[in-house]
Amino acid sequence: MMGLDEKLGLLPSSPGVYIMKDKEGDVIYVGKAISLKNRVRQYFQSSRSHSQKVRSMVQNIEDFEYIITDSELEALILESNLIKKYRPKYNVLLKDDKHYPYIKVTVNERYPRVILVRAIERDGGRYFGPYTSSKAVKDTIEVIRNIFPIRDCSRNLEGDFKPQRPCLHYYIGDCIAPCLGNVDEGEYNEMIDKICDFLDGKHQGLLDDLKKEMKLASNALEFEKAASIRDKIMAVEKVLESQKIIWTDDMIDRDVIAFAKGKSNIIAQTFFIRQGKLNGSEHFVLEDSFGNDMTNVAESFIKQFYAKDCYIPKEIFLDRDIEDLNIIESWLTEKRGNRVYIRVPKRGEKSRLVDMAAKNAKEAAQTMVARTKRKEERTVGACIELADYLKLDSTPYRIEGFDISNMQGVESVGSMVVFEGGEAKRSDYRRFRIKTVLGPDDYASMTEVIGRRYKRALKEIQGIELGERDKESGKFSKLPELILIDGGKGQLKAAASVLDGLGLGDIPIISLAEKNEEIYVVGESDPIVLPRNSNALHLLQRIRDEAHRFALSYHRSLRKKNTLHSSLEDIPLIGPKRRIALLREFGSIEKIKSASLEELCSVKGMNKQAANKIKEYLQ
After folding, report:
1. What is the pTM of this model?
2. CB-based contact 499:472 (threshold 8 Å)
């Protein structure tokens, strides 16, 4: 295999993309360069001028690859695609992969529709947005359909189509039914033009037309019709109220973007301005664990955000300059189909708009820091606090909680839930159907569950042959730093004795009793009572409640299944195969009971005689 020095000597001076890898072969950084030779070599020169991120990255580079491109623009596009594919740890990464809703007018179709979509395609349709709220899009589409009786079905009406039977929308007056084949295309397209004008912000004409119609209806004493038009006017005005007018000098579509640093993340605040109105605003989170330069952050956001199939406005306002402004403008221009400008306003209304975005970004960053702090206090902080209260030698990272659930000893089950770092790890949850205990004996049931769980762990650790499924998972081999039992001294004693017998008595084990929320510890006569407002107590309560919920849900599912089977078992002519088929088809006795004779006969393996028996028995 060729060494790094040798590969560095063979680098070309061409533009392209370089891909850094660690010793495991994972991609840890993707970058672009006008000259691959000059750019890549810089990483392996004197580290004095390198940032913390670069020094850390270089220490982990075991290999690199590069791809030559014909131009810097091609390199930029390829870099964006590779970052999206590999999500390298040393790149600034956009965490939010949201697909915003757009309103699409399918002018590429005969008799166009107005629909909600989440991606822009080059299909000849007209797109309006993005909107930050699906509800706002649905409300707008509903208003449009209330005013204009256009179709919303996806029937193929191209060419000389055969007239079809109209749907319910035609009969209630919501659609003029072009599927009948007698609707004038010119009149229909006039409605579509008015809809596009409305979505473009030219709403006054529509309001004027509606007000004229209302007046004519009122003068003709058609008060019901006038009231209906009045409601439509109010609906239009309500939609317009949600779009704040913030620009009156021109009607250019703009995105306004500003950035603010958090603790280990960066907030990018974006305003979507369409036709002088604020369509919506949204903040995005960028992962930045290595203190990247904010200019680099801004550039990375622009490339990752607009790499998606989203609307690209005529102008983009930023709160700072970026290094590759010209090449990014060229890339966006190519994507949009006409000229795109990236500007950094320094004065006037445009600058104040950027300042407003910056203030919102700063506030979002501060909120995120506060939220992160609160989360740390109730998770990792709670674990540290718990170790102090229980006088443990180390902070418990993995805590396993157990509970038993039954009803008078019927269908006894046990549950195991797992919390790591103070947060639930649902992939490691396990449930147990009690096999060796008859009747409502929680102590014996807990003994069985603890024994089965930790015997399996020892088998995995010792490499004893297990089933293929167990060998693949290997999750039982993880041992906790703390075990929590739901119950009092009895349940705790039963569980602790099992651990001692397995040689695992050094794992701390406690129980939490619901009465007074007392904590019992092995070897301690008096319970520990934590302050009611302590994060440690709240963590134990979350684990205990989650174990109880998980056990109870399993118990209910078994009870329901058995109830279904027992009810069907008494019906003549209904054997095991038919019972299974009925349960798969209907899922419950109530649904089987309410099913028609024809529906019952349609089930695999059923006949009319058996179906009649079911109806007769369940009535």
Report:
1. 0.61
2. no
